[in-house]
Design brief:
- The chain is α+β, with helices and mostly antiparallel strands and about 140 residues long.
- The protein has helices at about 15-25, 30-35, 40-60, 115-120, and strands at about 5-10, 70-85, 95-110.
- The chain contains four helices and three strands.
- The protein has a three-stranded antiparallel sheet with strand order 1-3-2.
- Strand 2 and strand 3 form a beta hairpin.
- The protein is flat.
């Protein structure tokens, strides 16, 4: 990881933001900005803003001038929820959760892959002894 930028407590559902983050993960900075600029979702505006901040951090703190060899890795974490109550029929109460998100965008050089890229593929699950079936129940006879 070369540099990162974070925006916390964004009033946005993390589930919806992850859909947009998956579109730009692993892309170069120019490709990611082009995708985010033309995405109609609100989450794209927030991720684009954090990405531009990460680029500015790389230029200022690490004197990076060539952005073509940087890859984008956005991470969307869930934040605390604002809890509200809405009255329903017959005296019941219905919880409304306004979800918040933490957006972190890190930039890494192309040669420096993440740990997930270097990890070998997971092995297939092994079959249980006995053909994967449970033994039949035995009953006692008196």
């Amino acid at each position: 990881m070369l540099t990162k930028a974070t925006a916390r407590y964004i009033r946005l559902s993390p589930r919806k933001a992850r859909l947009i983050a998956d579109l730009v993960r692993g892309k170069t900075v120019a490709e990611a900005l082009a995708i985010l600029q033309y995405s109609p979702q609100v989450a794209a505006r927030h991720i684009e803003k954090v990405l531009r901040s990460a680029v500015a951090n790389a230029e200022h703190n690490h004197q990076v001038r060539n952005l073509d060899d940087l890859r984008v890795n956005p991470v969307i974490d869930g934040g605390p929820s604002l809890k509200r109550i809405q009255a329903r029929a017959m005296g019941r109460a219905f919880w409304i959760r306004h979800r918040l998100a933490h957006i972190t965008v890190s930039l890494a050089e192309v040669g420096a892959g993440s740990g997930a890229a270097r990890r070998p593929p997971a092995a297939a699950p092994r079959a249980r002894a006995g053909g994967g079936r449970r033994p039949a129940k035995t009953t006692r006879s008196a």
